[in-house]
Write a structure and sequence with these properties.
The protein has helices at about 50-60, 75-85, 95-105, 115-130, 130-140, 150-160; strands at about 25, 30-35, 40, 150. A hairpin with a 5-residue loop joins strand 1 and strand 2. The relative contact order is 0.16. The protein has about 170 residues and is mainly α. The strands form 2 sheets. The protein has a two-stranded antiparallel ribbon. A two-stranded parallel ribbon has the order 3-4. The longest helix has 17 residues, at about 115-130.
Length: about 170
């Protein structure tokens, strides 16, 4: 009875925050004269992205994305063994879902054992709340690509001067 005397209300994940949007200033002729943004993030839907580009990102970041439930135990164990064999961590084990959790819910927390446990727990909760496609779309709109480019659309503009929908595998 003592062990169960606490409040057993289940933890709920808060809703995801809206994605940042650009504000554009136009002159009287309709030309863009200024762009204001908190961070270079330009949302795009998964349907507008070429399948081969999404497949390439998944191959690099989380090859088993469509098959796990938020946590890839095999990858986690591989990274754990590899990291114990060296002085400094050499491999990560975060799935795309775990990376979304890290960016959305766990920013600023110390990276320790509790952090990894929370990340794994929240990732499994998120996969019950959102579809794989919704999580992947959120990831592709928020992942940092460098040069103040958050998301694939912003990265395509910064690095290639084109829309993400125009990207190819090459």
């Amino acid at each position: 009875l003592i062990a169960n005397a606490h409040d057993e209300t289940p933890v709920e994940l808060p809703p995801l925050q809206p994605l940042s949007q650009r504000s554009m200033v136009y002159d009287v002729a309709g030309n863009v004269i200024a762009i204001f943004e908190r961070e270079n993030q330009q949302p795009i839907t998964l349907e507008k992205l070429p399948d081969e580009v999404v497949a390439a990102l998944l191959a690099v970041e989380d090859n088993d994305y469509w098959f796990h439930h938020g946590v890839n135990l095999r990858g986690f164990m591989r990274a754990l063994l590899s990291n114990f064999a060296s002085d400094a961590p050499t491999q990560g084990a975060s799935t795309i879902t775990q990376q979304v959790v890290k960016n959305e819910f766990l920013a600023g927390l110390p990276r320790d054992g509790r952090y990894k446990a929370l990340q794994a727990h929240y990732a499994t909760m998120l996969e019950k709340k959102m579809t794989k496609r919704e999580i992947l779309e959120r990831y592709l709109n928020t992942v940092y690509f460098g040069n103040n480019a958050y998301g694939l659309q912003a990265a395509a503009e910064v690095y290639y001067g084109k829309e993400a929908s125009q990207l190819t595998l090459v």
